[in-house]
UniProtKB/TrEMBL annotation:
EC number: 4.2.1.24
Gene Ontology MF terms in the entry: porphobilinogen synthase activity; zinc ion binding
Residues annotated to bind 5-aminolevulinate 2: 273, 312
Source species: Desulfosporosinus fructosivorans
Taxonomic placement: Bacteria, Bacillati, Bacillota, Clostridia, Eubacteriales
Protein name: Delta-aminolevulinic acid dehydratase
Amino acid sequence: MELKRRPRRLRANEAIRRMVRENHIRVEDLIYPMFVMPGEKKKIEISSMPGVYNFSLDEFILELGNVVKLGIPAVLLFGIPESKDSAGTGAYHEHGIVQEAVRLAKKNFPKLYVITDVCLCEYTDHGHCGLIENEQVLNDPTLNLLAQTAISHARAGADMVAPSDMMDGRVAAIREGLDKEGFSHIPIMAYSAKVASGFYGPFREAAGSTPQFGDRRTYQMDPSNGNEAMLETALDIEEGADLIIVKPAMAYGDIIYRTKERFGVPVVAYNVSGEYAMVKAAAANGWIDEKRIVLEALVSMKRAGADLLITYHALDVANWIREEGQA
């Protein structure tokens, strides 16, 4: 039997495999999430996320030097405040930890693209993403605080804000607030398809943001609902979102694909803390090839339609790409 088509011809060696490869991970695709905290000379490893740290500002700047040296274009900042209260006032204080980190980052590395997470959960003593009354998360009263937070980040020099709270109408409130304050040029990267996932556990350890009662299922999406993700995304785009985050990423490739196909906007896959922790734990036990697994997972997100990748693996990935380029 004569076979006219032999797909294996284009798999014969690494040269041809590279030449016909459909999807690529580039350093330019990477956004590195970082945690900043008060104090000095503090670099505290997060026990469930080996290689990821809470940084005091002086250590944060040293680490940013490594980020810039590797060519990673952007960081996403999360803040750990010195104290918390019921209204999360540290989130929107002029001299809050994220605001100070932004100023320091832009002073030392003005070309680095600085994105800030906009939420209250790290700053509230109850651990929820909004104001509370009778153990209920209040949607509309929270919107003004989220807008204040985004404005304070923009004033500090942030290049982009990323609301992650999942309150209804928060993108519109932030867009209106930014525009009124002269920040119409600041893009919004909205956590639009953010589900109430079990993959967030290590992040909550890092940020100290575990809810003190109940859970986040009244505002984060049910993992079973794909159509709801499309509704949330459509609403956020209508309200002024410029980029859309799908979070988590590995179990939600269908949502990444549908978002890109339907809306055509830049889509960002958030490779979250639990996904990172599982890979690290398996690699530490010698069960998997860490580099191979990480790159395979990230390329699956690109294949699904993601334009950008938020990942705690960013430093390693950038190093691997550099090593391959030098080979």
